[in-house]
Design a protein that fits this description.
A four-stranded parallel β-sheet has the order 3-2-1-4, with helices on both faces. The protein has about 210 residues and is of the alpha/beta class. The relative contact order is 0.13. α1 crosses α2 and α5 packs across α6. The chain starts with 13 loop residues before the first helix and ends in a 16-residue tail after the last strand. About 40% of the residues lie in helices and about 15% in strands. The model has no long low-confidence stretch (mean pLDDT about 80).
Length: about 210
Amino acid sequence: LDMSPYAWSGTHKDLRSWAILSQAIEHDVQHIALWTAGNAGFSLTKLVKRWNATVSPKKRKTVYCLVDSSTTPDMRMELRGPHCRVTSVSTGIGGILSREKLYNVVASMAGDKIEQEGYWQVTDGWDGVGIFMYSLLAQQCLYILRDELDKMGRASAKIYVILPIGTGNILFGFVRGMERFGDRRAKIVAAVPYEDHMMRPFLPPKK
């Protein structure tokens, strides 16, 4: 997908969205579904909207965004449109979002049974492209940061990158991206949100 006529969303999901849409175009996938807190859905929908404006109805894509209580009303309104359908799912404590559940929800949103050949679940960890694209993003970020520090005469300064754990994809992608930098790689700090969230059952018990 040539990105020259497109506008990026400005989120860290843009490279991943580019890879997803490129694969969907190549393999003629019409229905693209994902669970999103906002950024992934916003980034992908922005690209799909632009793509749909340039092709015939038969080649257009539809994004299905499954959101939870962490997604703000403003983001839900931003996502909704002719190119994106939005619905709520529970992903709090004890919530398990399986591929089958996601498929059934999307099928009910579409109003009929979606053929598997034209359907792709691209929630982080299920897309097959995220880790590679996140590793490229990590390298791009570190190259820029190191270059700026070199100009400031602080080439030996330590760099810390704070990342949300989320599904683990961006964290693992950044770890992979840092490997080529050796001793000049950044230190990665993993963060989880406060209050109710889908990672809480996996946190270590309080001492």
